[in-house]
Amino acid sequence: MPEKIVQLNEEVIKGQIKELVRGSVEETLNELLEAEAEKLTQAARYERSDERQGYRSGHYSRNLTTTSGDVTAQESKKAAREKAKAVVEQLHSMKLKEAAKKVEDGIEETLTYCEFPFEHWTRIRTNNVIERLNREIRRRTRVVGTFPDGNSALMLVCARLRYVAGTQWGNKKYMNMKHLEAALEDASVAG
């Protein structure tokens, strides 16, 4: 009588378990978010009611808990300074004196964006526009491969910059200058 042997492919089973866990975590998180949205708006999705407190689109401030602690977008320059001082103290306690000195020396320069209107802070802190332009130039130069000399590479980059400056992409307003004008008027009236 032949012996029955059962063989299991361990990799297939691990893959299926991983997908099962991923799917159940995703489903749980989506249900939690759905329940929270219903609680906040006092209405289910697409429900029209007099008790509705708001709409489901948009966002609000939340804390993100990481292994390094709670992360929050800073409300003021003072709060950012206090957070930076706490980081410096923590680095000192970890005996990382050079890192603490670097952070301490760069606090004011890093917080320069706080001198501008609050609405401009995210635009000033990030360099998304420059990164997008650099990716576009990198993409164009990779197509060519090798250039005969530096001038031909420079001419290609300049031609791309001229094109961007002359199109809608170059004409987009990155910041609403009305906020800055209002801040300058307030400063001139106060001063």
TrEMBL record:
Keyword presence, Transcription: no
Keyword line: DNA recombination, DNA-binding, Transposable element, Transposition
Keyword Lipoprotein part of the UniProt annotation: no
InterPro entries (UniProt xref): Transposase_mutator (IPR001207)
Region (Disordered): 45-77
Biased composition (Basic and acidic residues): 45-54
Xref: Pfam families: Transposase_mut (PF00872)
Coiled-coil intervals, chain numbering: none
Domain of life: Bacteria
Compositional bias segments (type: Polar residues): 60-74
Role, per record: Required for the transposition of the insertion element.
Family statement: Belongs to the transposase mutator family.
Protein's recorded name: Mutator family transposase
Protein species of origin: Yanshouia hominis
